[in-house]
Design brief:
Blueprint: H1 5-23, H2 33-36, E1 48-51, E2 57-59, H3 60-66, E3 89-91, H4 93-102, H5 106-120, E4 160-169, E5 183-186, H6 192-203, E6 210-215, E7 218-219, H7 226-233, E8 238-239, E9 242-250
Parallel strand pairs: 4-9
Antiparallel strand pairs: 1-2, 1-3, 4-5, 6-7, 6-9, 8-9
């Protein structure tokens, strides 16, 4: 008796599915090491923390210790912040979840180490954060006497507000992005060299392109600090409390 064509087809599909699963490529874990390991301790990322200026990621404890003696990224050496690099780091929970899924028992091991650390010191073990679903929004009228408190306060170190005004590029200068962040608050100890590096990074300028920065009628030197420029220029260089710096892109002079 001949077999049913439906039964034969089902058997063939089963073999095909099994063959597809075997042909699926499997990559060794070490190929992902550059993305899931910390460049400082060379271990797998724990409390993954990313630098917002360059998007390089490290263990939180590693990068915090690194900032005790340096304000630059350990990978690309970019200045994270002139005085307070901790302001420009953020937790990367999605990447941390990926690391925990790729490395078996890593999360449990870190949890056990943390519990042991707190118990040895007689401290209460922190409970894991549970994110509850958002409830209905209830609008309440504020009392007239209540004054809303500011959630964000500007650090006192950032005492100079800049307005970066792009005046144009010399003919022959091309392939640059527009400067999206024209308003910047920085430390008065920063120099024109720092401003130039900021412009170069944000506009993705070629190394051969030269950035000329002008305040009023004066072409500024790299070593001049923003605080000195603001004090010497006076009110003429300010616009609504902002220090106005004009900058243009030129080709290097031929000597």
């Amino acid at each position: 008796m001949s077999s049913s064509p439906f039964g034969r087809k089902s058997h063939e599909e089963s073999n095909l599915s099994h063959s597809d699963s075997e042909d699926e490529p499997k990559l060794p874990l070490n190929q992902f090491y550059p993305y899931i390991r910390c460049a400082l301790c060379c271990g797998f990322l724990i409390d993954a923390t990313t630098i917002t200026e360059c998007l390089h990621t490290f263990c939180k404890s590693c990068i915090v210790k690194h900032f005790f003696y340096s304000n630059r990224c350990p990978t690309c050496s970019i200045v994270v912040h002139q005085t307070q690099p901790h302001y420009n780091i953020r937790p990367d929970r999605q990447l941390q979840d990926i690391v925990y899924k790729m490395i078996p028992f890593l999360e449990e091991s870190e949890r056990e180490k943390m519990c042991k650390f707190y118990k040895e010191r007689g401290l209460e073990v922190p409970k894991p954060v549970v994110i509850s679903p958002p409830g209905p929004v209830v609008l309440r009228r504020q009392k007239k006497d209540s004054i809303p408190q500011s959630v964000f306060t500007i650090p006192p170190e950032l005492d100079v507000s800049l307005l970066l005004d792009f005046v144009g590029a010399e003919e022959g200068v091309c392939n640059y992005k527009p400067l999206e962040r024209r308003y910047v608050r920085v430390s008065g100890e920063a120099t024109i060299r720092h401003v130039e590096l900021f412009i170069r990074r944000k506009m993705e300028l070629s190394p051969t392109c030269q950035v000329d920065v002008v305040c009023g009628d004066h072409l500024l030197d790299h070593y001049q600090s923003l605080k000195d420029i603001q004090n010497s220029a006076g009110e003429d260089a300010l616009q609504d409390g902002l220090l106005v710096l004009h900058f243009g892109l030129v080709l290097p002079s031929q000597s």
